[in-house]
Amino acid sequence: MKxxxxxxxxxxxxxxxFEKHGYHGVTVDQIVDECGTSKGGxxxxxxxxxxxxxxxxxxxxxxxxxxxxxxxxxxxxxxxRLCAIITSFTKIFDLYKPHITxxxxxxxxxxxxxxxxxxxxxxxxxxxxxxxxxxxQSSGDFRPEVPAEISTMAIMGMINWMYKWxxxxxxxxxxxxxxxxxxxxxxxxxxxxxxxxxxxxxFLLKTEPA
Length: 210
Description:
The chain is mainly alpha-helical. The protein has two domains: 1-46, Orthogonal Bundle (Arc Repressor Mutant, subunit A), CATH 1.10.10.60; 48-203, Tetracycline Repressor, domain 2 (Orthogonal Bundle). The chain has helices at 6-21, 28-35, 39-45, 49-74, 78-106, 112-138, 148-160, 162-165, 174-189, 192-196. α1 crosses α5 (78-106) and α5 packs across α9.
């Protein structure tokens, strides 16, 4: 079997070690020993351990932000936009759970420009989610009495907490979990008129026949 590229091996090894021992509990020497490369190989790909931590964070945040932008441009109505954004947000845990776990455990150690760049992308994502909700309020689809700011933070908090409990081998698929989240948020946000007209129906849980 062909050996994985050095950069990929370093990242995979660091993810396991950071998650188990913490960022400051792992040295560059330990990372290169564990993944079978050299310090030269490490510093050819990363200028420092801090840059490695930044890269781990940036990979999934950039992917998440790009997916949200694609969704926003693709969907034409606020309800579909919000649900598609929630779905892509949920599915990222099936792709990047180790990255996200390390992020929440070790993000306080990211400093300077690295911290600023990550925070700017997180803020851009939050604003896009907020905008979708506000547009739904303006169109009459979402209840205006439910503050968009709180709804935005509720969605982000609800989904982000998956890093604590989501397991790929669990009983529920990632698609089912996304549908549950969408169902919960739509029943909280949709106006009675929007519900009666069938807005977002394709994103709701299906009632089992008696």
